[in-house]
Write a structure and sequence with these properties.
3 helices; 4 strands; 35% helix
Length: 81
Amino acid sequence: MVKKSDNPTNALINRNFIIRVLENPKENNVKNTKLTSANKLSNYINDEEIKIKLFNKILDEGKDKYTFLIRSRLKIDFQSK
């Protein structure tokens, strides 16, 4: 059973976007990209402030696709559903 999110922003992101994460993009092949959720993105970023900035940008600008490179060790793609 799916647990309802207690965070409305995470729920909105999950409902509208597919999130793909690639760790160490310079060394890893694109085939190693992993799907994740807004909640689990915290496991990769470890910085709530950065995560909130990314989510605000995504929700405010209204594009279909976003790509972020975090400290050259993490590539995050958000693609609208």
